[in-house]
Amino acid sequence: MIQRLRQTEPPVDRDLDSELRKFATPLQSDDDLTPLLERIGDARYVLLGEASHGTAEYYSWRTRISRRLIEEKGFDFIAVEGDWPNCYRLNRYIKGFQDAGASARDVLHAFERWPTWMWANEEIVALAEWLRHRNERLPAARKTGFYGLDVYSLWDSLHSLMAYLRRSRPEAFEQAVHAFRCFEPYGEDPQEYAWATRFVDASCEDEVVALLAEIRRGAPHYAHDGRESDLNAEQNAIVVKDAEHYYRTMVHGGPESWNIRDRHMVETLERLMRHHGPQAKAIVWEHNTHIGDARYTDMSDEGMVNVGQLVRQQREREDVVLVGFGSHRGSVIAGSSWEAPMARMPVPPARRDSWEDVLHRMGPENRLLIFNRDTPGEAMLRPRGHRAIGVVYHPRHEMLGNYVPTVLPRRYDAFLYLDETTALHPLRVPVETKREVPDTFPAGV
């Protein structure tokens, strides 16, 4: 039998502990979010992160923040790291459009692309029903929306466009059919398409560019759902164009496919802001790797940019607030490999000397850190590991990876530390893990 030894905790860095306490306040109730609301002030972009895509408390605390931003500061929409077609269906339900579905639960079951649990979960059901109930009392122009920013939905967006054009604008339908036929040999498998374009000098780029041009020429003719319909048609065409570019670039490796994706998300966010008017305010929900400014991690060394960095660079500093999330231990929903069945997995104690470990050793309380009161000292500005769990996760291997070197008070404007977290509640039943991590799992290495 292999014996695991408990490792002695490193001594607390007194300077760092003292510095962190300057920025920290307790986090237990909605009222404890008031310092964050004050920090946000009149900002029009609030980006809320998460350290995993499968943690219940990240979703519930982002909901708490979002509800206060919508009710107290008049934010117009939530935009998430999700596919446009599925999220637009939820947007239609939230806004009470005709034939939009009987319940949020019914609509969310349409989220079929892996990882389904990211948005088809009980936490999003609760948020969507709250938004629907609130919107029922408001005129159309003041209803809060819910949209997807991501680029992955090439075929779903193409199918949505074809159905829409067949119904609403038959003269443009042939252009969509032409694009569909170009992709058809690849069986709706983006990787097969991507590999084919690597070895053969052929792609569907011209077809999707022509389709977008046709959609934009016809935008004034769209009437269903009012102006939202114009937005939906154009965005689906843009997703098809950008997804084709993304998948074609992905097979070559390197940072460019990541950058294409995050630039697409920022361009979509700006398109939504224009749609909602000159005073629009946006809440964004994405992983910390997209939300936290990449310049204060090792991502920049690899030539990668992200949403948080790009929005900061494009907007006035006081107009953007980036909020990160992290926890010390708990459980999570994830897969053991790409497209593997979802499972409830343990999250071991954070790696020694990571930000999560340092915050835990201050005491086991949840904390809100606001980085605007004092200039951080040298101890705060040293890069430390910051946990990042993806949709594919291996708890026993995480000490070898899953940590992004981070200057915390520069990467974010605020940070929610949750000492222990629990797994998300998917609408589909997850596969249980057969073996938990033992109590003797080392705190570091």
Automatic annotation (TrEMBL):
InterPro entries: Emycin_Estase, Hydrolase/PRTase-associated, UCP036794_erythomycin. One of its GO terms (molecular function) is methyltransferase activity. CDD domains: Ere-like (cd14728). GO terms for biological process: methylation; response to antibiotic. Pfam families: Erythro_esteras (PF05139). This is Protein-L-isoaspartate O-methyltransferase.
